[in-house]
Amino acid sequence: xDFAEKTLSxxxxxxxxxxxxxxxxxxxxxxxxxxxEIVEHSGGVCVAPLTESGELxxxxxxxxxxxxxxxxxxxxxxxxxENPLEAxxxxxxxxxxxxxxxxxxxxTVYPTVAYCSEVIHLFCAVGLRSTQQHLDLGEFxxxxxxxxxxxxxxxxxxxxxxxxTVALILKIAxxxxxxxx
Length: 181
Fold this sequence. Notes:
The chain is an alpha+beta fold and 181 residues long. The protein has helices at residues 84-96, 148-156, 163-177; strands at 6-15, 19-27, 33-41, 44-49, 55-63, 68-72, 75-77, 98-109, 120-130, 142-147.
């Protein structure tokens, strides 16, 4: 069976700097009609800076929607048409003040598949060298270093909840177990 839904019409509700919200009338595979509420987002990147000793660099920052500080791997929004690898390299230096000898892809994640178009590109960065942070205006964060094993424990104990960070930590841990990084 083909599960594709056909868009019949789109009504834009809101256009902001980061998101656009629209409501679509759709035709379902069985011919019935329904609506879909969609948040359009240009996507993002998340980078796991991994030291030679097996530690990850994290950023701790306040996340307004949750009204609390979260521990996350460095990440950022893609500008329209921006190359994800270049964005990851940029975010790594801006947020953590490091550059990497090598940055490689670990795939993508779709953080909220039911209503948001955001795609987050995941990267691992190795061969780290200190430079200087270049935080965006209005960006406030601290950089923290944690051993990979501790980061995995924090994921499993619910201390790290950010979905992109959870996925990337577990991918890195699995690849290290296999001796692939």
